[in-house]
Amino acid sequence: GIWASCCLYHVRKSLLPAVLRTFATILSTRGLLYFNLKKGVGEKLDLEPPSSPSGGPRFYAFYCEAEIRALTTGFRLLDLRSTDPTLGGVHFETVLQKQ
After folding, report:
1. Is the Cβ–Cβ distance between 11 and 61 less than 8 Å?
2. Chain center to CA of 51
3. How far apart are CA 6 and CA 12, in angstroms?
4. N or C terminus of the chain with fewer C-beta within 10 Å?
5. pTM exceeds cut of 0.85
6. Are strands 91-98 and 75-82 parallel, antiparallel or unpaired?
7. What does the alpha-carbon distance between residue 90 and residue 11 come to, in Å, rounded to a whole number?
8. Is residue 19's pLDDT more than 80?
């Protein structure tokens, strides 16, 4: 399986389908892929991200549920859920299985 937590939302939206295709080539049949993506619209460069006060700017891509569903080509969608906002949740968590 592949566990891609808190990293794929730093990839440009235009490049993410290629990343997921690469994951599909790495996974065995019925292999699992977990990833989370930030909720929202568009992309942005955050010049002063709170998670990295001294680390410099960070790029973020934001997704809606329909965009994530469109990314699942070649996979079976096992789970797609929104994280709990009371726990600081601003992500969609996704579990896919290679077909």
Report:
1. yes
2. 17
3. 14
4. C
5. yes
6. antiparallel
7. 17
8. yes
Tokens of 62: 């934001």
Query: Which 3 state secondary structure label does DSSP give 79?
Result: strand
Residue 32 to residue 25: CA distance in whole angstroms: 12
- Rounded distance between C-alpha atoms, residue 91 and residue 71, angstroms: 16
Instruction: Read off the pLDDT band of 83 (50, 70, 90).
Output: confident
pLDDT for residue 37 is more than 90: yes
pLDDT at 88 over 70: no
Residue 65 in tokens: 């549920």
**What tokens appear for 92 in the block?**
């969609």
Amino acid identity of residue 74, one-letter, is G
Which residues are within 8 A (CB) of 13 and not within 5 positions of it... i.e. 6 or more apart?
A: 43, 61, 63, 67
The C-alpha atoms of residue 86 and residue 66 are separated, in whole angstroms, by 23
